[in-house]
Amino acid sequence: MKAYSLRDIPPEILSEIFSFLDAKTLLVCSSVCHLWLNAVKSSPELQYMLELWSDGMVPGTSVSTHADALEVLYKRRRTWQRLEWTSKNTVEIESLIFCRAYELVAGLFIQQQRGPDFHTISLSDLVDNPQNARVTQSGGIELSNFEDFAIDPTQDLIIRFYAPEPAYLDCRTMSSHEPHPRANHPVFTFSLDRHPIGVFYIQIVDDVVGIFFPEPPFSFHLFNWRTGLTITEVRDEQDIPFPVAEFHLLSSRSYIFAHAEHDTGSESGQIDIFTFDGDCPNSPINIAILELPPVNPGVWITNMIIQAGPFCANAISGIPFTKSNQNRIYMFLICYDVTKWCRLFVHWRWLHSYVIDHVREKTGTAVVPWNEWGPQNSRMLLGENHQWNRHVHGERIVLACENRNFVQVYDFGIIPQRIALVPQPTAQSEVVLHTESSTLVWDDIFEDTVTTSLPYMHTVRLLSEEYDLFLMDQDRILAMNTAEDSNHLMTAYTF
């Protein structure tokens, strides 16, 4: 009887077997032997799977062949790497300084202006069908009470915040502003005990909405908007021995608090990770405390801000691929002693790994010193205060430069081993890959030199106009100026 080996398996059968693997396992298999490598390389489907994973993407809703989608993916990667956009379109908007609120999610830029109307700009239509890109829609807003809103277009969901006493959240559809059909109780009421409202932040992740008030008296409210359940209401005098500077949802069942102080009384700061049961009240559990770099005696963290991109519960319609909710960077803006700002970048997968460990091992609260997690799993760079929302998306951050004729992008979604070639500098752009550790030396702030090593790519591009603010989503950079006397125009650079 003839002895058979793996070499006797036809390539098309190998490819069919490999299609059942996840991308990371497929990458391992492709390094086993030339036969398996060639089977992967000869299959557009498998190549597409690998390249999607490499860019932190998941398949979208538009239909095309794997070969065509792969070419689109390669083109997108090249254009983002050099910031070589394929189109540039300008549209008039309300000044961000004067509008009540704005959002940028799933290709929609929405402003609620000083009047009762919402103005929605479809950013894809701005390229393909500019005369129909802008839609004005009345939302039935009670202007004396309305404060802000959050959206998830993939769920046709808008949640608006009103602030009489009691305050309330109102869950409606974006398409008709009717009560959302999936919300058993579309209105959530809660007490604030504050006037004026001050700073606050709303976030939606799947079936959960959180609203956070960092200014005294600090409070945090978490609801399951579909079932009508109040998951938790946290107030500083009840549950937290010192103020929370910031909050952000990690997933539909976990969130983080950023503190300016440690439980031990130190002023070095910490990041607390909580899990909760979305169908059970009073269920949050503090599962991990990540300590920040130790500071010198007398040094204080005076402010902390968390910036991250929006979550979408479902794939964005009409595009071949979507950024995965798991491929996200969190930027912690930290201010030491009033004037010294830095940016701490931490990937979602590291923060969420503590959630996975807790679910698997049912451990208590893990207290993790900075030197056990920070140097290898973060990057700390000098920075400035930047409170404009939506300049972070996925694993990228877009920022203005000191010279307003330039734009810069930090990309933490890279896999250094899979970058074949870093583009050479040109007259318009420069790309630098940072894979070595960097140090932050503030002898008057930190006990020791702060060394961090999360790899990233930094791209700077010359523009033909000057801008002082940039926002971004998956496929474009939005540029504008915030000065009161500037023209109220937004330029969309589409990739």
UniProtKB/TrEMBL annotation:
This is F-box domain-containing protein. Pfam families: F-box (PF00646). It comes from Mycena sanguinolenta. Residues 3-49 form the F-box domain.
